[in-house]
Each structure stands twice: as structure tokens, then as C-alpha cells.
Design a protein that fits this description.
alpha+beta; Nucleoside Triphosphate Pyrophosphohydrolase; two-stranded antiparallel ribbon; 4 helices; 9 strands; about 35% strand; globular
Length: about 170
């Protein structure tokens, strides 16, 4: 049983609860989203595995998850990036935001999402249980495709994208 951290709007821990129960009840919880860019400014995106508990078969950011109970967020982002994408890189927190969305399967996300940005020029090795495809994509091409085909992308990715691209200019500066 995987427990995740329940928080208030100021990101103060208010409890812990089993992950699927939290998503059924729509309780606010701590999460993170990692956006990785290469030296050319392209973003590494993944298509979530079809079997994911929600948003399967949709394109999204490099990696996202929840810190485990008792784990700080800095440890969690590096742990999960290695587990999901098969690599690690320096990451910098850019911003956080709260979003809430209900999915067709009855589950809900109500997350205080910490956004981390990193730079990596290697080849990822995504876990097939997490991602069925991946690609590097230019920011311009990505923004155009999200506008044209928004239904192919996860909700949180669409919400955060413009702010991530804007933040990446500062975060990725040498």
C-alpha cells in the first residue's frame, strides 16, 4: 500500500493516506512534475502507459509522481526520475500550483504540484509500465500541437506548460 502526503493550500502536511483512496476522494495532496530539456531547448515528453490508473495513453511531462510518506520532495524527484525515466540530472524547483480535475473513470486529482526543471542530453530508458513512448520535441512544435490537439495531453501538463517554458529560460541558464 502506497501512502501519499495530504496537505493544506500552504503545503503543510495534514495527514497521510493510501494513494488510490486519495484519488477517489479528491483530497489535496503533495505531488511533483519534472520537465527535462536538452541543450537544444527541446523538452523530453512521454506518453503514459495505457494501464496507468488515470490519464493513460496521453502525452505529458518527463516524469511526475508523489513523494512518499516521510520522504522530502528533493529526494523524491531524483528517486522517481531514475525509476521512471532511467536517468538522473540536476533539478531545480521553478514554481508550484494547485489544480483539481475529475477523470472519466471517477478518480480525481487535487494536487499541490511542485514543478522541477532539469537539463539532460542523454538517452532515457523509460520503464514500460510507466511510459509507452517518449520523444524530444521543440518548444514551438509542442505549443502548436497542444493548442491543436489538447485532448492528447494530460490536464496538468496543459495547465503548467506556458509557465514551465517561461521558467525554463531562467532555470536552464548556465
Amino acid at each position: 500500500m502506497e501512502e501519499i502526503i495530504l496537505v493544506d493550500e500552504k503545503d503543510r502536511e495534514v495527514g497521510r493516506e493510501e494513494k488510490i483512496a486519495v484519488h477517489k476522494q479528491g483530497k489535496l495532496h503533495r505531488a511533483f512534475s519534472i520537465f527535462v530539456f536538452n541543450s537544444k531547448g527541446e523538452m523530453l515528453i512521454q506518453k503514459r502507459a495505457k494501464g496507468k490508473y488515470h490519464s493513460g495513453d496521453l502525452w505529458t511531462n518527463t516524469c511526475c509522481s508523489h513523494p512518499r510518506a516521510g520522504e522530502n520532495i528533493e529526494e523524491a524527484v531524483h528517486r522517481r526520475l531514475k525509476e521512471e525515466a532511467g536517468f538522473d540530472c540536476p533539478l531545480k524547483e521553478a514554481f508550484s500550483f494547485i489544480y483539481k480535475v475529475k477523470f472519466d473513470n471517477g478518480l480525481m486529482e487535487n494536487e499541490l504540484d511542485h514543478v522541477f526543471i532539469g537539463k539532460f542530453d542523454g538517452k532515457p530508458k523509460f520503464n514500460p509500465e510507466e511510459a509507452q513512448e517518449w520523444k524530444w520535441i521543440s518548444q514551438e512544435e509542442l505549443k502548436k500541437d497542444v493548442q491543436k490537439n489538447s485532448e492528447k495531453y494530460t490536464y496538468w501538463f496543459r495547465v503548467a506548460l506556458d509557465r514551465v517554458i517561461s521558467s525554463s529560460k531562467d532555470t536552464l541558464r548556465p
